[in-house]
Structures are given as structure tokens and as C-alpha cells.
């Protein structure tokens, strides 16, 4: 999970750029007639998201694209506005889409913290909240796995996950991701989430949902499996050099470096810290991965 700065884009400017691309004058006029209401969405969204209450936004059923979403503009037309006039290459609003897609530092997906950003995700899915189709605050750069794995579902109080623009700073600073090495014939790594007891219940719940929604336990374990082999070889190298006494310190250094490079709750940091503290793996377990 990575925190992102809110896009430096207003709904008014993005909406105007999207609507400008519509060729049919009648359709354009219907969009222009609701510009103020759409603009108002931004303020309400910002207030609800800041309070962690976005699940209060009223959703609509899937499909039925002919039904009006706002004023005389239908659900289908809102979705088309995004698809045809913002995401499509060559359209006036496409540079805005690109700006959002490229806004994640080092192009790393904020939802999982390791995938490459390839797409733009609607935090509140446009299939359920079509009037938010081109709201910058609702558009998050994401990797394909996170975007595709996210269900097109209504956000409820009990299934809300972390919003990269709005999540509490301490969620990114406090440690909550841990790993353990499972002592089997071929050792492997398991990740677990232990949120600080001091966190408010709604924040703990949100982070736990996030972990589950994006399948992070399984996806982190896949990433970590080859890295565990790497650490087995680091240990073997020290043993071969006769530097057995230095193994723990070498691994602690690696753990500190992973933490600085990838963040305290990255799979890399959690794995390296566990390897550095696991006496069984350092003495015996590593040999089973060589
Ligand atoms: Zn991702």
C-alpha cells in the first residue's frame, strides 16, 4: 500500500475537457446543463472520503444504461464520457488521463505496493456510481491485477478499503505487515496482518478489508518465494566465507535497506525482517532451499 497525493486537477476542468470532445451538440448541451451538479460532486466526495464515509454515496444497480444518472444524462452516457472522451487516445481529455495514470511515484501501484501501474481505476466503480466517471478524486492509478481483481461492487461500511488519496498517514507509518517462515521440507513464507491496538476500529477494519480485497496475502507470498531463495544463498555465502558470526548482522542490514527502499509494510521489508530474526532458517532451514 502506498499513499498518493491527490491529483492537482479540478472536476470542473476535467469535465469541461471531456464534454468538449462530444460531437453531438444535443448530447453536449445535456452534459453542460448539469455541469454545476457534477462540480458539486467533488466537494461532497472530498468531505465523505476525508471522513472515511464514502460508502454513504448512493449507488445504483448495474446496467440499465438508459436510466438517467443526473439531470438528463444517463448512466450509459456518463460511462461513455469516460471511455470515449477521457481514456481514448487523441481526445482532448486524454492528457488528463495520462497525468493521473503516471502520477504514482516510480510507477508503483498504490493498492498493492509492488505492481506496475498500467491502468486507471475508479475507486467507486463507474458501473455503480456512473456520475463519478470522470471525477479526478475517484480515479486512481493501478496495476492490472488490482484493477481487474477489484469487484464492481457497492461500497458498504463493512467492505470499504483504503483510498490512496485519503487513508490516514499512520497507516503508512505504523508497522502492521508481518511474515513468518513455515518450517517444512521446502520452507515458505506466510504473510499476516496485525494492526496496532491503538488504531480506531474503522481504520483497522478498512486495512484488513484492503488486504483481503486485493488478495495481498497470496500475491505477497508469490513475490516472496524466490526472494527467500535469495536469502538462503546470502546465508550460504557467509557460511562458505567462514563468516557465520556475521550472518545475523548481514541480514539485519538487508532488512533495514528493504524497509528504507520499499516501506515498512512492503512484502520485501516484512520478509527480510523475518529472515533476519529466524534462527532456525539461518541455521538449518536455508539449506533446504539451495
Ligand atoms: Zn496493484
Describe the structure.
By secondary structure, this protein is mainly alpha-helical. The protein has two domains: 11-149, no CATH class; 169-289, no CATH class. It contains twelve helices and six strands. It has helices at residues 11-20, 25-33, 35-50, 75-85, 94-101, 144-149, 169-173, 201-213, 216-240, 247-262, 267-277, 279-283, and strands at residues 68-70, 73-74, 119-122, 139-142, 177-182, 188-193. Strands 1-2 form a two-stranded antiparallel sheet. β1 and β2 form a beta hairpin. α9 crosses α11 (267-277). It is elongated and about 80 Å long. The mean pLDDT is 96. The structure holds zinc ion. Zinc ion binds next to α6.
Radius of gyration, whole Å: 23 Å
Helix proportion: 40-55%
Q: Provide a count of the helices.
A: 12
Ligand set: zinc ion
Mean pLDDT: 96
Helix-and-strand structural type: mainly alpha
Number of domains: 2
Q: Enumerate the spans where pLDDT stays under 50 for 5 or more consecutive residues.
A: none
The overall strand count is: 6
H and E order: HHHEEHHEEHHEEHHHHH
Order of strands across the biggest sheet? 1-2
List the main descriptive attributes of the protein structure presented here.
6 strands; binds zinc ion; mainly alpha; 290 residues; two-stranded antiparallel sheet
Fold blueprint:
Layout lengths: L10 H10 L4 H9 L1 H16 L17 E3 L2 E2 H11 L8 H8 L17 E4 L16 E4 L1 H6 L19 H5 L3 E6 L5 E6 L7 H13 L2 H25 L6 H16 L4 H11 L1 H5 L7
Antiparallel strand pairs: 1-2, 3-4, 5-6
Helix pairs in contact: 1-3, 9-11, 10-11
The protein binds zinc ion.
Question: Could you write a compact summary of the structure shown?
Answer:
The protein has 290 residues and is mainly α. It is 47% helix and 9% strand.
